Amino acid sequence: MGCGEARRGVREKADEARVRRRGIGAAWRARWFAIVSAAVLAGAIAITGRGAAAQPNASEAARMPLSRALMNAEHAPARRPGAGAGRPPPAMAPRMERRIETYQAPDDQRLDPLLDPPTAGGAPIAVTATAHIINLSEINEVAETFHVDAYLMMHWHDARLEYAPDPASPGMRVYKIGEIWIPTVELINATEPRERSDTALQVAPNGTVFYVERFAATITSAFALKRFPFDRQRLVMIIHPFAGDLGQFNFTDDPHPIVTSREFQLYSSLASWDLQGVRSHVQQVQLPNGMTISEINFRINVQRRYKFYVWKVIVPLLLMVGLSWMVFAIEPGDLGNQLQIAVTTVLTVIAFGFAIAGNLPRVPYLTYIDAFFLCCYIFVFLAIVELMAVHVAHRGPNPERARRIRRAARWGVPAAFAISNAYLLWQFGIV
Fold first, then answer.
1. Which CATH number fits domain 308-427: 1.20.58.390, 1.10.760.10, 3.90.550.10, 3.30.1330.10?
2. What are 161-192's pLDDT values in tens digits?
3. pTM listed for this prediction
4. Which of 137, 182, 129 is nearest to 154 (CA)?
């Protein structure tokens, strides 16, 4: 009995000590909360720069110095745990509400109406666009890309910018990018967004806005290499409005012809091409979602300089094929010399094909140069077939038959080779 009462007494004392510790901890948490609240309030007063005089309705805690607020917070009575949680101190709440209600954006941050598109009655703006080619380089038939350096020039009318001309300064007014509205366009068939180096924005007295930018980009375009190396290519630059500006403006053709720089032939990087001209074409394109947008295509026409392939590829192949026909001048019984000439020619043609493979386009269809190589292989192989037939006939009971085959091949094989090449030229549209 005495032991049980002793244990209950010990538990009661332990419970009283635990309650006492909780009360002390709650008191310290309440004091620290008051200290932090006062510090935050004083910091807010210092940042906003508003003194006690500018806030006649502020609380007493907002007007007292920071040191006094801290002292009062230390001697403040302890609060119950959780009391006042979830809401700011009373001294801060009115200040926060007043700041939210009276906030206005500064004048320099308000949107300028000149940045809006100058649409009249909701009709799209007519934007005339043209290009001035400075340089072309890196035309890659394998990757089907080319690099262009050019000027993009656009002009449109904005009635809001009309002004009376000043005789003292007859020039046009100059604006900066971001001061007035300009159409945002994208070069959609570029491998990466175009790089703009220089821009100019001027406005005439009648409200006509002239925009010029210099840009450089690597562009993808479909190549038609069936007639290679006698081919002509149409390199296309496709310009669309920005997706966020759909319906705001439409492109129109510039009546003036597109020109290239006068010094283009001096510094052009097109060692294998001749620039024939540049044309523009405006069309309406329907998107998959049913919307119709304006599109302008700049078509750069170039023609390949084929003399390299004539003198470095075609003529050497013709000589190799002609070398294989030397077997027709050897006696039918001399098989060793005939085989030596024929086999050497075959190996030479194969090695030559491997040597120039890096200069030929790798496309999944047959080009003219591929067909010409195939024709040369076939006629070199026919020379070997002819000499074997002549050798077999010469060893047979009728040696005269071998001589008749040799005389027929001496004239028939070159004639068939010439007819085959003429057909290839016609089939590929070269002549």
1. 1.20.58.390
2. 999 888 877 788 999 999 999 999 999 999 99
3. 0.64
4. 129
